[in-house]
Amino acid sequence: MARKNSNREKNTAPFPAFENQARAPTTQPLTPFKRLLKRLSEAYGPSGSEEGVRELVRDEIKQLADQVRVDAFGNLIAQRRGSGSRRKKIMLSAHLDEIGVMVSFIDTRGYARFGTLGAVKPLTLLGARVQFENGAVGIIGRQAQGAARTEIDMEALFIDVSGAPTAIQVGDSACFAREFLEAGDFLIGKALGARAGCAILIETMRRLKKSPHDIFCVFTVQQQVGARGAGAAAFAIQPDVAFVLDAASASDMPGAPAQGIALGKGPAIKFQDEGALTSARAREMLLEAARQTRVPYQLDVTPRAMGDTLPIQAAREGVPTAALALPMRYLNTASEMAHSRDAQDAIELCVMLLQRPV
Hints:
The protein is α+β, with helices and mostly antiparallel strands.
């Protein structure tokens, strides 16, 4: 009599056969937008050290604006004058900075202790490579003595810079070292949560022929360490309405609720941010622009992430502010993932938003 299959046998899928002579995947040239995103993603720019990535953005926008300047805080502000007789001031904000680490102590052997810049996740650090502004590279390791096998304690971590110990000093910052990749429709890289917003804002400026309003495109600094730059810019500009371009944490992964934010289903219009509720008036402007362009969009009501919304909203007597977010998997890691179609939809929505009367 044949033996009955066990539950384990029933639930086990056959192991796939691999072709020995499998061909390598064909690599297609990156589009201009993706080349821009690659340059921005791979650039060095942790909070407080955004000068390099700021210059990359300045080179892209200097021919697209009537005036480009850097304020005392370090924000890059590009202004385009409107054509309307009753024009309003509209501010669009995207942040330049990324998460990183800062050296707090270094010994003579080339092992450095560090603090974090922004929402760095300890579980993602062990074995990660970091790069300093001068090009020196370090590896994050963990001291073994007294540590449990499953423990990831920030106090037990260090950066191994033994290859160039004299090139690093206390106070030096580093960002994660990771190459930008395109995998089908998916975009993968470090700092995409910040730099995708910058790329969307640059491409919006490139496609926008004219607007009835005065447009202020602001590339802010120090968002990861308390959203400091955006408030200073909004205080000076005094916009009539503002829109923040940011990232929304996607939940279309195993074990996550099915009704959450997903990649490939359009940008997310946020109702809530950490410490802030978006303005109904500004939010309706985003919704109306999405309906007119007929791009898909999602609604995000997750208050966990902090962005530039609150400091802009609270500037002077208050600014009606809304947020448009690009869905992102693995946010605040060295391999953030976005969908290219969501980025293109966000650009179309922003162009329509700036063409319409307020």
